[in-house]
Protein backbone atom coordinates (compact mmCIF):
# COMPACT_ATOMS: atom_id res chain seq x y z
CA UNK A 1 0.00 0.00 0.00
CA UNK A 2 1.30 3.45 -0.87
CA UNK A 3 0.04 5.78 1.82
CA UNK A 4 -1.47 9.03 0.61
CA UNK A 5 -2.10 10.27 4.13
CA UNK A 6 0.14 9.19 6.99
CA UNK A 7 -0.71 10.03 10.57
CA UNK A 8 2.01 9.22 13.06
CA UNK A 9 1.77 9.32 16.82
CA UNK A 10 -0.72 12.20 16.79
CA UNK A 11 -1.66 13.67 20.18
CA UNK A 12 -4.07 16.50 20.93
CA UNK A 13 -4.97 17.81 24.37
CA UNK A 14 -7.23 20.54 25.68
CA UNK A 15 -6.72 22.61 28.83
CA UNK A 16 -9.04 21.78 31.71
CA UNK A 17 -10.41 24.97 33.14
CA UNK A 18 -12.57 23.46 35.85
CA UNK A 19 -11.48 23.50 39.48
CA UNK A 20 -8.79 25.30 41.37
CA UNK A 21 -6.58 22.26 41.91
CA UNK A 22 -6.57 21.13 38.31
CA UNK A 23 -4.99 24.25 36.89
CA UNK A 24 -2.59 23.28 34.13
CA UNK A 25 -4.18 19.85 33.78
CA UNK A 26 -5.10 18.77 30.27
CA UNK A 27 -7.55 16.37 28.72
CA UNK A 28 -5.84 14.05 26.24
CA UNK A 29 -8.48 13.88 23.51
CA UNK A 30 -6.15 12.10 21.06
CA UNK A 31 -3.30 10.03 22.43
CA UNK A 32 -0.59 8.68 20.13
CA UNK A 33 -2.80 7.84 17.16
CA UNK A 34 -1.19 6.44 13.99
CA UNK A 35 -2.84 5.31 10.77
CA UNK A 36 -2.50 5.51 7.00
CA UNK A 37 -4.99 6.07 4.21
CA UNK A 38 -4.15 4.85 0.70
CA UNK A 39 -5.16 6.65 -2.49
CA UNK A 40 -8.78 5.90 -3.34
CA UNK A 41 -9.36 4.17 -0.01
CA UNK A 42 -12.10 4.74 2.55
CA UNK A 43 -10.89 4.34 6.13
CA UNK A 44 -13.67 4.17 8.71
CA UNK A 45 -12.98 5.71 12.13
CA UNK A 46 -15.35 4.41 14.81
CA UNK A 47 -15.76 4.62 18.57
CA UNK A 48 -18.10 5.82 21.28
CA UNK A 49 -18.95 9.46 21.84
CA UNK A 50 -15.97 11.35 23.23
CA UNK A 51 -13.38 8.84 21.98
CA UNK A 52 -11.59 11.54 19.98
CA UNK A 53 -12.79 10.89 16.41
CA UNK A 54 -13.71 14.49 15.56
CA UNK A 55 -10.62 15.87 17.27
CA UNK A 56 -8.49 13.55 15.11
CA UNK A 57 -10.23 14.83 11.98
CA UNK A 58 -9.90 18.46 13.08
CA UNK A 59 -6.21 17.98 13.84
CA UNK A 60 -5.63 16.67 10.30
CA UNK A 61 -7.16 19.90 9.01
CA UNK A 62 -5.12 21.90 11.56
CA UNK A 63 -8.40 23.25 12.92
CA UNK A 64 -6.94 22.26 16.27
CA UNK A 65 -3.19 22.25 16.83
CA UNK A 66 -1.73 18.86 17.71
CA UNK A 67 0.60 18.67 20.75
CA UNK A 68 2.84 16.29 18.86
CA UNK A 69 2.95 13.85 16.00
CA UNK A 70 3.16 14.08 12.24
CA UNK A 71 0.56 14.36 9.48
CA UNK A 72 1.98 13.77 6.00
CA UNK A 73 0.04 14.19 2.79
CA UNK A 74 1.86 12.83 -0.25
CA UNK A 75 4.97 13.03 1.89
CA UNK A 76 4.54 16.73 2.82
CA UNK A 77 4.58 17.30 6.55
CA UNK A 78 1.46 19.40 7.22
CA UNK A 79 2.09 19.99 10.92
CA UNK A 80 5.22 21.98 10.02
CA UNK A 81 3.52 24.35 7.57
CA UNK A 82 2.54 27.88 8.46
CA UNK A 83 0.81 30.88 6.94
CA UNK A 84 0.49 30.95 3.17
CA UNK A 85 1.88 27.43 2.68
CA UNK A 86 -0.67 26.02 5.08
CA UNK A 87 -3.49 27.82 3.27
CA UNK A 88 -2.24 26.47 -0.05
CA UNK A 89 -2.20 22.93 1.32
CA UNK A 90 -5.56 23.15 3.04
CA UNK A 91 -7.37 22.60 -0.25
CA UNK A 92 -6.05 19.06 -0.42
CA UNK A 93 -7.99 17.98 2.67
CA UNK A 94 -11.68 18.90 2.89
CA UNK A 95 -14.29 18.15 5.51
CA UNK A 96 -18.00 17.31 5.47
CA UNK A 97 -19.85 17.61 8.78
CA UNK A 98 -23.02 16.14 10.24
CA UNK A 99 -24.69 19.54 10.11
CA UNK A 100 -24.49 20.88 6.53
CA UNK A 101 -24.74 24.44 7.88
CA UNK A 102 -21.22 23.95 9.24
CA UNK A 103 -20.05 23.91 5.61
CA UNK A 104 -22.79 25.97 3.94
CA UNK A 105 -23.44 29.54 4.97
CA UNK A 106 -27.26 29.80 5.19
CA UNK A 107 -27.13 33.36 3.82
CA UNK A 108 -25.28 32.36 0.64
CA UNK A 109 -26.85 30.94 -2.50
CA UNK A 110 -25.48 27.67 -3.92
CA UNK A 111 -23.36 29.45 -6.55
CA UNK A 112 -21.56 31.31 -3.75
CA UNK A 113 -21.19 28.61 -1.13
CA UNK A 114 -20.27 25.72 -3.43
CA UNK A 115 -18.22 28.14 -5.56
CA UNK A 116 -16.35 29.74 -2.66
CA UNK A 117 -13.43 27.25 -2.63
CA UNK A 118 -13.07 27.82 -6.40
CA UNK A 119 -12.75 31.57 -5.78
CA UNK A 120 -10.38 31.20 -2.85
CA UNK A 121 -8.06 28.56 -4.30
CA UNK A 122 -8.38 29.00 -8.05
CA UNK A 123 -9.45 32.63 -8.39
CA UNK A 124 -12.51 31.70 -10.46
CA UNK A 125 -15.40 34.18 -10.60
CA UNK A 126 -18.63 34.88 -12.43
CA UNK A 127 -19.65 32.66 -15.31
CA UNK A 128 -16.55 30.45 -15.17
CA UNK A 129 -17.16 29.72 -11.49
CA UNK A 130 -20.88 29.09 -12.07
CA UNK A 131 -20.12 26.65 -14.85
CA UNK A 132 -17.88 24.65 -12.51
CA UNK A 133 -20.55 24.75 -9.79
CA UNK A 134 -23.13 23.39 -12.26
CA UNK A 135 -20.81 20.49 -13.07
CA UNK A 136 -20.35 19.80 -9.37
CA UNK A 137 -24.11 19.82 -8.76
CA UNK A 138 -24.62 17.27 -11.50
CA UNK A 139 -21.79 15.16 -10.13
CA UNK A 140 -23.51 14.92 -6.72
CA UNK A 141 -26.93 14.22 -8.25
CA UNK A 142 -28.53 17.68 -8.06
CA UNK A 143 -30.03 19.82 -10.76
CA UNK A 144 -27.63 22.36 -12.33
CA UNK A 145 -30.49 24.87 -12.22
CA UNK A 146 -30.22 25.30 -8.43
CA UNK A 147 -27.48 27.94 -8.50
CA UNK A 148 -29.53 30.76 -7.03
CA UNK A 149 -31.18 28.77 -4.27
CA UNK A 150 -30.47 28.99 -0.54
CA UNK A 151 -29.57 25.96 1.59
CA UNK A 152 -32.95 26.05 3.42
CA UNK A 153 -34.72 25.36 0.12
CA UNK A 154 -33.20 21.86 0.02
CA UNK A 155 -33.98 18.68 1.94
CA UNK A 156 -31.48 17.32 4.48
CA UNK A 157 -30.08 14.79 2.01
CA UNK A 158 -29.79 17.43 -0.73
CA UNK A 159 -28.02 19.80 1.65
CA UNK A 160 -25.51 17.06 2.40
CA UNK A 161 -25.00 16.63 -1.36
CA UNK A 162 -24.28 20.38 -1.52
CA UNK A 163 -21.75 20.05 1.31
CA UNK A 164 -20.09 17.19 -0.60
CA UNK A 165 -20.07 19.25 -3.82
CA UNK A 166 -18.34 22.09 -1.95
CA UNK A 167 -15.81 19.68 -0.45
CA UNK A 168 -15.03 18.24 -3.89
CA UNK A 169 -14.86 21.62 -5.65
CA UNK A 170 -11.08 21.94 -5.57
CA UNK A 171 -10.40 18.25 -6.22
CA UNK A 172 -9.00 17.32 -2.79
CA UNK A 173 -6.87 14.24 -2.07
CA UNK A 174 -8.74 13.42 1.11
CA UNK A 175 -12.26 14.19 2.32
CA UNK A 176 -12.95 13.82 6.03
CA UNK A 177 -16.62 12.98 6.60
CA UNK A 178 -17.49 13.56 10.25
CA UNK A 179 -20.82 11.84 10.98
CA UNK A 180 -21.82 13.04 7.51
CA UNK A 181 -24.86 10.76 7.26
CA UNK A 182 -25.75 10.46 10.95
CA UNK A 183 -28.57 13.01 10.91
CA UNK A 184 -30.27 11.50 7.84
CA UNK A 185 -33.01 8.86 7.68
CA UNK A 186 -31.94 5.39 6.56
CA UNK A 187 -32.94 5.63 2.89
CA UNK A 188 -31.32 9.06 2.49
CA UNK A 189 -28.27 7.67 4.31
CA UNK A 190 -28.04 4.90 1.74
CA UNK A 191 -28.27 7.37 -1.14
CA UNK A 192 -25.42 9.45 0.27
CA UNK A 193 -23.35 6.32 0.98
CA UNK A 194 -23.84 5.22 -2.64
CA UNK A 195 -22.87 8.68 -3.84
CA UNK A 196 -19.65 8.66 -1.80
CA UNK A 197 -18.77 5.20 -3.11
CA UNK A 198 -19.41 6.35 -6.70
CA UNK A 199 -17.29 9.46 -6.21
CA UNK A 200 -14.50 7.42 -4.70
CA UNK A 201 -14.50 5.03 -7.65
CA UNK A 202 -14.83 7.81 -10.21
CA UNK A 203 -12.42 10.41 -8.84
CA UNK A 204 -10.07 8.27 -6.75
CA UNK A 205 -10.59 10.50 -3.72
CA UNK A 206 -9.65 9.06 -0.32
CA UNK A 207 -12.00 9.34 2.63
CA UNK A 208 -11.66 9.30 6.37
CA UNK A 209 -15.19 8.33 7.27
CA UNK A 210 -15.90 9.10 10.92
CA UNK A 211 -19.01 7.52 12.39
CA UNK A 212 -20.32 5.98 15.58
CA UNK A 213 -22.48 3.71 13.39
CA UNK A 214 -20.63 0.50 12.57
CA UNK A 215 -23.17 -0.78 10.07
CA UNK A 216 -22.82 2.40 8.00
CA UNK A 217 -19.03 2.11 8.10
CA UNK A 218 -19.23 -1.53 7.06
CA UNK A 219 -21.04 -0.54 3.86
CA UNK A 220 -18.35 1.91 2.82
CA UNK A 221 -14.95 1.36 4.35
CA UNK A 222 -12.23 -0.96 3.09
CA UNK A 223 -10.42 -0.59 6.40
CA UNK A 224 -11.58 0.41 9.85
CA UNK A 225 -9.87 1.99 12.86
CA UNK A 226 -11.41 1.79 16.32
CA UNK A 227 -10.83 4.52 18.94
CA UNK A 228 -11.32 4.25 22.66
CA UNK A 229 -10.62 7.17 24.99
CA UNK A 230 -8.28 8.90 22.57
CA UNK A 231 -6.32 5.80 21.60
CA UNK A 232 -6.55 3.68 18.51
CA UNK A 233 -7.15 0.21 19.94
CA UNK A 234 -7.54 -1.76 16.72
CA UNK A 235 -7.33 -1.27 12.96
CA UNK A 236 -7.50 -3.57 9.99
CA UNK A 237 -9.33 -4.62 6.83
CA UNK A 238 -13.14 -4.38 7.30
CA UNK A 239 -13.67 -8.00 6.38
CA UNK A 240 -11.32 -9.27 9.07
CA UNK A 241 -12.37 -6.73 11.69
CA UNK A 242 -16.10 -7.35 11.36
CA UNK A 243 -15.73 -11.14 11.15
CA UNK A 244 -12.95 -11.52 13.73
CA UNK A 245 -12.64 -8.50 16.00
CA UNK A 246 -9.36 -8.75 17.90
CA UNK A 247 -9.98 -6.19 20.64
CA UNK A 248 -12.62 -6.90 23.32
CA UNK A 249 -13.88 -3.34 22.81
CA UNK A 250 -14.40 -3.91 19.07
CA UNK A 251 -16.14 -7.17 19.89
CA UNK A 252 -18.47 -5.36 22.29
CA UNK A 253 -19.19 -2.54 19.81
CA UNK A 254 -20.02 -5.05 17.10
CA UNK A 255 -22.32 -7.04 19.33
CA UNK A 256 -24.48 -3.93 19.58
CA UNK A 257 -24.87 -3.63 15.79
CA UNK A 258 -28.14 -5.02 14.47
CA UNK A 259 -27.59 -7.82 11.96
CA UNK A 260 -29.97 -7.82 8.96
CA UNK A 261 -30.41 -11.61 8.96
CA UNK A 262 -32.86 -12.44 11.80
CA UNK A 263 -31.39 -15.94 12.29
CA UNK A 264 -27.96 -14.48 12.90
CA UNK A 265 -29.39 -11.81 15.17
CA UNK A 266 -31.00 -14.41 17.39
CA UNK A 267 -27.86 -16.46 17.67
CA UNK A 268 -25.64 -13.52 18.43
CA UNK A 269 -25.22 -12.63 22.06
CA UNK A 270 -25.23 -8.96 22.81
CA UNK A 271 -22.32 -7.95 24.98
CA UNK A 272 -23.27 -5.26 27.44
CA UNK A 273 -20.20 -3.40 28.58
CA UNK A 274 -20.02 -3.15 32.34
CA UNK A 275 -19.68 0.41 33.59
CA UNK A 276 -19.76 3.76 31.83
CA UNK A 277 -16.90 5.08 29.74
CA UNK A 278 -14.27 6.33 32.21
CA UNK A 279 -13.74 10.01 32.96
CA UNK A 280 -11.54 11.28 30.11
CA UNK A 281 -9.99 13.86 32.44
CA UNK A 282 -8.70 11.07 34.66
CA UNK A 283 -8.23 7.96 32.50
CA UNK A 284 -7.38 4.58 34.06
CA UNK A 285 -3.76 3.39 33.93
CA UNK A 286 -2.47 0.62 31.69
CA UNK A 287 -4.99 -0.31 29.03
CA UNK A 288 -7.69 2.33 29.50
CA UNK A 289 -10.36 -0.23 28.59
CA UNK A 290 -9.47 -2.57 31.48
CA UNK A 291 -12.22 -1.46 33.93
CA UNK A 292 -14.85 -2.48 31.38
CA UNK A 293 -13.08 -5.45 29.83
CA UNK A 294 -14.48 -8.92 30.52
CA UNK A 295 -11.01 -10.40 29.93
CA UNK A 296 -8.97 -7.96 32.05
CA UNK A 297 -5.80 -9.39 33.62
CA UNK A 298 -3.32 -7.92 36.10
CA UNK A 299 -0.99 -6.73 33.37
CA UNK A 300 -3.82 -4.70 31.79
CA UNK A 301 -4.06 -2.48 34.86
CA UNK A 302 -0.46 -1.30 34.70
CA UNK A 303 1.02 -1.72 31.22
CA UNK A 304 -0.16 0.09 28.07
CA UNK A 305 -0.35 -2.54 25.31
CA UNK A 306 1.67 -1.86 22.15
CA UNK A 307 0.22 -2.38 18.66
CA UNK A 308 0.51 -6.08 17.74
CA UNK A 309 -0.14 -7.58 14.28
CA UNK A 310 -3.35 -9.58 13.91
CA UNK A 311 -3.89 -12.66 11.72
CA UNK A 312 -5.88 -11.55 8.70
CA UNK A 313 -4.47 -8.00 8.75
CA UNK A 314 -4.18 -4.91 10.89
CA UNK A 315 -3.03 -4.37 14.46
CA UNK A 316 -4.51 -4.48 17.94
CA UNK A 317 -3.47 -2.97 21.26
CA UNK A 318 -4.48 -5.63 23.74
CA UNK A 319 -2.53 -7.87 26.12
CA UNK A 320 -4.54 -10.88 24.99
CA UNK A 321 -2.43 -10.61 21.84
CA UNK A 322 0.96 -9.65 23.23
CA UNK A 323 3.68 -11.78 24.64
CA UNK A 324 5.88 -9.45 26.57
CA UNK A 325 8.42 -9.70 29.32
CA UNK A 326 5.51 -9.25 31.74
CA UNK A 327 4.06 -12.55 30.65
CA UNK A 328 7.25 -14.57 30.83
CA UNK A 329 5.47 -17.79 29.95
CA UNK A 330 4.25 -16.69 26.48
CA UNK A 331 1.09 -15.06 25.17
CA UNK A 332 -2.14 -15.03 27.10
CA UNK A 333 -3.91 -16.96 24.37
CA UNK A 334 -1.22 -19.66 24.57
CA UNK A 335 -1.46 -19.66 28.35
CA UNK A 336 -5.23 -20.04 28.16
CA UNK A 337 -4.94 -22.82 25.62
CA UNK A 338 -2.43 -24.54 27.89
CA UNK A 339 -4.70 -24.11 30.93
CA UNK A 340 -7.79 -25.46 29.18
CA UNK A 341 -5.66 -28.31 27.83
CA UNK A 342 -4.48 -29.05 31.39
CA UNK A 343 -8.07 -28.93 32.64
CA UNK A 344 -9.15 -31.45 30.01
CA UNK A 345 -6.24 -33.69 30.94
CA UNK A 346 -7.25 -33.74 34.58
CA UNK A 347 -10.85 -34.43 33.67
CA UNK A 348 -10.10 -37.45 31.49
N1 LIG B 1 -12.57 22.31 22.05
C1 LIG B 1 -12.53 21.45 23.08
N2 LIG B 1 -12.21 21.85 24.33
C2 LIG B 1 -12.15 20.98 25.36
N3 LIG B 1 -12.40 19.66 25.26
C3 LIG B 1 -12.75 19.19 24.05
C4 LIG B 1 -12.83 20.04 22.89
N4 LIG B 1 -13.20 19.29 21.82
C5 LIG B 1 -13.33 18.03 22.28
N5 LIG B 1 -13.06 17.96 23.60
C6 LIG B 1 -13.05 16.72 24.43
O1 LIG B 1 -12.19 15.81 23.78
C7 LIG B 1 -12.72 14.49 23.85
C8 LIG B 1 -12.91 13.93 22.45
O2 LIG B 1 -13.94 14.66 21.80
P1 LIG B 1 -14.36 14.40 20.28
O3 LIG B 1 -15.36 15.43 19.93
O4 LIG B 1 -13.13 14.32 19.45
O5 LIG B 1 -15.03 12.97 20.38
P2 LIG B 1 -15.88 12.18 19.27
O6 LIG B 1 -15.32 10.80 19.21
O7 LIG B 1 -15.91 12.95 18.01
O8 LIG B 1 -17.33 12.12 19.94
P3 LIG B 1 -18.79 12.18 19.25
O9 LIG B 1 -19.08 10.77 18.76
O10 LIG B 1 -19.69 12.58 20.37
O11 LIG B 1 -18.75 13.19 18.13
C9 LIG B 1 -14.02 14.59 24.63
O12 LIG B 1 -13.78 14.25 25.98
C10 LIG B 1 -14.39 16.04 24.48
O13 LIG B 1 -15.15 16.49 25.58
MG1 LIG C 1 -17.46 13.81 16.88
From TrEMBL:
<dbReference type="InterPro" id="IPR027417">
    <property type="entry name" value="P-loop_NTPase"/>
</dbReference>
<comment type="similarity">
    <text>Belongs to the ABC transporter superfamily.</text>
</comment>
<dbReference type="InterPro" id="IPR003593">
    <property type="entry name" value="AAA+_ATPase"/>
</dbReference>
<dbReference type="GO" id="GO:0016887">
    <property type="term" value="F:ATP hydrolysis activity"/>
</dbReference>
<protein>
    <submittedName>
        <fullName>Oligopeptide transport system ATP-binding protein</fullName>
    </submittedName>
</protein>
<dbReference type="Pfam" id="PF00005">
    <property type="entry name" value="ABC_tran"/>
</dbReference>
<keyword id="KW-0547">Nucleotide-binding</keyword>
<dbReference type="InterPro" id="IPR003439">
    <property type="entry name" value="ABC_transporter-like_ATP-bd"/>
</dbReference>
<dbReference type="InterPro" id="IPR013563">
    <property type="entry name" value="Oligopep_ABC_C"/>
</dbReference>
<dbReference type="GO" id="GO:0005524">
    <property type="term" value="F:ATP binding"/>
</dbReference>
<dbReference type="GO" id="GO:0015833">
    <property type="term" value="P:peptide transport"/>
</dbReference>
<dbReference type="InterPro" id="IPR050319">
    <property type="entry name" value="ABC_transp_ATP-bind"/>
</dbReference>
<feature type="domain" description="ABC transporter">
    <location>
        <begin position="5"/>
        <end position="254"/>
    </location>
</feature>
<dbReference type="GO" id="GO:0055085">
    <property type="term" value="P:transmembrane transport"/>
</dbReference>
<keyword id="KW-0813">Transport</keyword>
<dbReference type="Pfam" id="PF08352">
    <property type="entry name" value="oligo_HPY"/>
</dbReference>
<keyword id="KW-0067">ATP-binding</keyword>
<dbReference type="InterPro" id="IPR017871">
    <property type="entry name" value="ABC_transporter-like_CS"/>
</dbReference>
Amino acid sequence: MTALLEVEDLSVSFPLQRGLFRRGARLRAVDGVSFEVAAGEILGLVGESGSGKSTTGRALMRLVEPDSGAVRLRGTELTALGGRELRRHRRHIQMVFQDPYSSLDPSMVVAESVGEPLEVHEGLRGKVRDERVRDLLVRVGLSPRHLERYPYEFSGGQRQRLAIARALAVDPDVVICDEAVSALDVSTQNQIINLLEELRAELGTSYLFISHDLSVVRQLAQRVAVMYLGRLVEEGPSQRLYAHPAHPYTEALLSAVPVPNPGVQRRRERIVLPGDPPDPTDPPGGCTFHPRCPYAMDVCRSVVPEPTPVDGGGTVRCHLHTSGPVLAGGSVLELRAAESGAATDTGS
